[in-house]
Amino acid sequence: MTDMDADLVAAFAAELADTARTLARAHFRKTTAFERKADESPVTIADKAIEAALRAAITARFPGHAILGEEAGLTRGDDHLWVVDPIDGTKSFITGMPLFGALIAFARRGEPQVGVIEVPALGERWVGVPGRTTFNGEPARVSGCGALEDARIYTTSPDFFTPDDWALYDALSRKGAMRRFGGDCYQYGLLASGHCDLVVETSLQPYDFMALVPVVENAGGVMTDWQGRPLGLGSDGKVVAAASPALHAQALRHLGA
User: Fold this and answer.
1) HSE on the CB side for 5, CA within 13 Å?
2) How many CB atoms lie within 10 A of CB 164?
3) Helix 163-173 with 245-254: angle, nearest 10 deg
4) How far apart are CA 201 and CA 230, in angstroms?
5) Strand extents, DSSP E, 158-238
6) CA count, 13 A, side-chain hemisphere, 75
7) Matching CDD domains, A to Z (predicted)?
8) Are strands 111-119 and 124-129 parallel, antiparallel or unpaired?
9) Which of 98, 237, 215, 89 is nearest to 157 (CA)?
10) Which domains does the chain have, with CATH numbers?
11) pLDDT in single tens digits along all 257 residues of the chain
12) CA-CA distance, 8 to 96, in Å (whole number)?
């Protein structure tokens, strides 16, 4: 992908994020009803409306591209893939917490290259493209923290861990300077802007993490699975995002890699 390609893709992704912001705000703290999907996770009218709008816009602009979304699954296409999560943090959305986001990723041959974390309720947006990450248009950079004992560590919830995985995370996070919970995609934006240093999670799907990878990595961070492998459509849902290679390596050692 050339710089021009990346900028064109990012500009279109920003248009998609604008659409997601408008629709999310129209429903936020007004929509309380939800349904349960087969996996017992909640879904609202806002999730469905945002994904439908994003899919329609992508198909109109790039009719040959594939689309993967949380609600409607995979639409087949060529080796250009858009991955969208209309509301990452639906439980936050339902309960009035403003830290939910919309995630938009563009991948080529399975590799995420452009990512957007849109936080509609706060009017905040991170965009990662090859060579740079921005936060509301200004450069974003990780803290560079290299020592676990100095690290500010996040995960969304203990509920997403198996007992064995939780034991590993619990032991790891207690060695840090502090640990916090909650945030869904927002914590990865905080990492990209230097406000936290390590995020460790499990049970994620590609639409949960594909957009996060370009944001974190192009801000100077490292993001892989628990074995240190690049994240992609076939990943097992266990992710580590760190503010430096040194911190990432320490985290992997504690997680059994």
Assistant:
1) 9
2) 9
3) 130
4) 15
5) 178-181, 198-201, 222-225
6) 22
7) Bacterial_IMPase_like_1
8) antiparallel
9) 89
10) 3-139 (3.30.540.10), 148-254 (3.40.190.80)
11) 665 588 899 999 999 999 999 999 998 998 666 666 555 465 678 888 999 999 999 999 999 999 999 887 888 878 899 999 999 998 898 899 999 999 999 999 889 999 999 999 999 999 999 999 999 999 999 999 999 999 999 999 999 999 999 999 999 999 999 999 999 999 999 999 999 999 999 999 999 999 999 999 999 999 999 999 999 999 999 999 999 999 999 999 999 86
12) 34
Two structure tokens written together for 243: 């503010």
Q: Give the H or E element holding residue 188.
A: helix 186-192
**Rounded distance, CA 81 to CA 84, Å?**
10
SS3 content of the chain, % helix, strand, coil (to 5): 35, 25, 35
Report residue 174 as tokens: 């207690």
Say which residue the tokens 């087969």 belong to. 38
**In angstroms, what CA-CA distances link 22 with 46, 203, 230?**
11, 29, 33
Q: Of 132, 136, 154, nearest to 198 (Cα)? A: 154
Report which of 71, 54, 251, 40 is spatially closest to residue 145, judged by C-alpha positions.
Answer: 251
Q: Which of 172, 169, 191, 207 is nearest to 243 (CA)?
A: 191
Bridge partners (DSSP) listed for residue 80:
108
